[in-house]
Amino acid sequence: MIRVNKGFLDYVTTLKNADKHSAITEQEAGVGKKIVTEKTTVFSVYVVKEGLAKCYLTEDTGNDFIQEFFGAGEVFGELEMFTQDFSFCTIEALTPIKYYKIPKKVFLALIENDAKFNSLVLRLMASKIRYTALRHSYHQSHALEVNLKRLLKEFPDLLQKISKKDIANYLGVTLRSLNRAIKILG
User: Fold this and answer.
1) 44/110 same-domain check
2) Most buried pick, 4, 17, 55, 185, via CB within 10 A?
3) Could you report the per-residue pLDDT of 1-17, keeping only the tens digit for each?
4) 62: pLDDT strictly greater than 90
5) Which pTM value belongs to this model?
6) Could you tell me where the beta strands, DSSP code E, fall in 6-115?
7) How far apart, in whole angstroms, are the C-alpha atoms of residue 124 and residue 133?
């Protein structure tokens, strides 16, 4: 649920500290700040250094669907670098966050010239695909209470870190259904 990628973060931190990669900048965002907005051009790739962000898209019904939560080392904007398309999600800070911003030109040069960076990006993209497939399969084939119980087992302080509304949006249910499931689990 809260995805992290320490290996990628460590490597980007090393690159950031190298003189030749001064174009990689560190930035901050406060709670509620949208770092990337759905249906806009993305000019950089972002790596969460610390904090928590949510990745969501707004459906035509006006409801938000949360794809995932990003913790330290998670990356966003990389898909848009390859597809040359608009962002399909909004990335919003849930807590104050620090992140690295890698301009498109630098990211693409690293992909082309840095075998380790390239390998790490391929792994993180494969991991995202695998995680999404497993998550959707599990959520489709199990009752809400089972899904919630599993999340609370994996993240005991989930209800303290993430709002009930965001958890409901992540699970694809109404807030009322989530509250009922929480009450059942007691």
Assistant:
1) yes
2) 55
3) 788 899 999 999 999 98
4) no
5) 0.87
6) 25-29, 34-36, 44-50, 53-58, 64-70, 75-76, 90-93, 97-103
7) 14
